[in-house]
Structure of Exocyst subunit Exo70 family protein:
Amino acid sequence: MGVPQAMAALRDKAALVRESLQKSQTITESMVSILGSFDHRLSSLETAMRPTQIRTHSIRRAHENIDKTLKAAEAILGRFDLTRKAEAKILRGPHEDLESYLEAIDQLRSNLQYFTTHKCFKSTSGIITHANNLLTKAISKLEDEFRNLLTNYSKVVEPDRLFDGLPDSLRPSATSPGKRNDSKKDSDNQKNSENAVYTPPTLIPPRVLPLLHNLAQQMVQAGHQQQLFRIYRDTRASVLEQSLRKLGVERLSKDDVQKMQWEVLEAKIGNWIHYMRIAVKLLFAGEKKICDQILAGIDSLRDQCYAEITANSVSVLLSFGEAIAKSKRSPEKLFVLLDMYEIMRELQSEIDYLFGTKSCTEMRESAQSLTKRLAQTAQETFGDFEEAVAKDATKTAVLDGTVHPLTSYVINYVKFLFDYKTTLEQLFQEFEESDTEAQLKTLTTRIMDALQTNLDGKSKQYKDPALTQLFLMNNMHYIVRSVRRSEAKDLLGDDWVQIHRRIVQQHANQYKRISWAKVLQCVTIQGVAPTGGGGILGGDSGSGISRAMVKDRFKNFNAQFEDLHMRQCQWNVPDSELRESLRLAVAEVLLPAYRSFHKRFGPMAESGKSPCKYIKYKPEDLERMLSEFFEGKTCVEQKR
């Protein structure tokens, strides 16, 4: 095909395309025209339908508002119904069904809060006023119910119930509370006492406690804290004080204490120790337990309540201790002071726990102050006792030379001190941190020294120097023997014991020398020997002794021995071992000398006139008579 033909074909195709484009343009314009007419029609339709749409929306909103109003009305009516039911329960009072009554109060509070926040209709203020008045009445009845419940179930605790809460070893049947034991408990018993289980009495039945707690919570929510405080404090404080009075607790002043006879006062102190243990471990502990349960969640009110409930009772108990600590000191009070100090130390941890809050600070500090005061008074009494021993001016002499009452009193005193060794060590630590055992040793040594000094002075009252030595021997032996048999030996040491045993022996030797020297001289052979002829006796030195001189020797011996026998049978060596030892010591010197003299010179006296006048005793007679020495017999008993 040639070029012209190709061009012609191309032109045909171009014409065809142009024609197609023109048709498409025409169609497009037609569609635009049609669509434009649709838009115009839709706009007209929308304009026509707008009023209908507006009416439909308004109707829908009206329906929604009606639903909301119906629901609100239903809720309000429900609140009215709940208020009516709550009012009915409240008007009936809490006696029939306390739990329901408390639920009604909660419901009334909820309704009141609802109407307070929904003040959208005219009668709201009237409803709120009515609900508040009703709530006030409800809380008033609640107070009455709280008071009645607390009063009805708060009973005075009988002493027997309190005793049942004590460990067996501390019950009155085991140890009378009015009397202090003569021998203190040892360390094991003390440890058992500290670890003993105490069972506080049930002050209010457990089933009532939750009800009282709920009532208390309602009163606090209503702003009636002060009313709750007064009701609880007055009721429980009265019952606690009555329980203690029934037990025997009484308020005594320093003047009351000063006027009492010692036996009466000692019994009251023993009772006080018992009362303190019962009060702290049983009554105060039980009181704190129910206070914590009833007033749980009301911390400030709870602590203040407990403090004021127990304040007067604590004051009564501690005031007696203070009166004793401040009263006139005397040696016999030392051990009851130590007993009182000991119980305060024993109860210290419980007191710190029970009265550990800020509200109880005064009571806690008062207890600590009493403990310190008792320790101080006891320490001062030690000094008084030492001085009293040194200055004891008792003129009543023990005529038979036996152990002086002062000696037995002081030794028993020291023994008691060692029964309180642990307590004394605690007491010493109240004032200084040092070696408490060394302090106790120093104290004991000073008392022993004061006693020995006083006994030395008392021994000078005897006109017979032999009796002086016997008196000192008896008393020193009693001291040494007592120390050896007590805990004091471990503290004073073996050296102290050995030194004082030698002192006992020295006094025994002095007694023998003073009493028997002259008697022994009568029967001493040294320097006396018979010579030949004429009845003349001569000595080793050549000097002689006549029959008259022998008779005189026997006569003097008889007189002196009889005098000693008469007097010294009235003297007393109360310790049987010491008595036998002293007799044996005398016999070992006297009998061999007499036996030898009697054998050698007896025949000379017997060969004269009235030999029985001079040789009155055989050695066996002397031995028998020596066994009668130091028995403390009276003259009448000797004649019998």
In short: The first strand starts at residue 537 and ends at 538. Confidence is low (pLDDT under 50) at residues 174-191, 530-543. The chain has 22 helices and two strands. Residues 3-92 form the longest helix (90 residues).
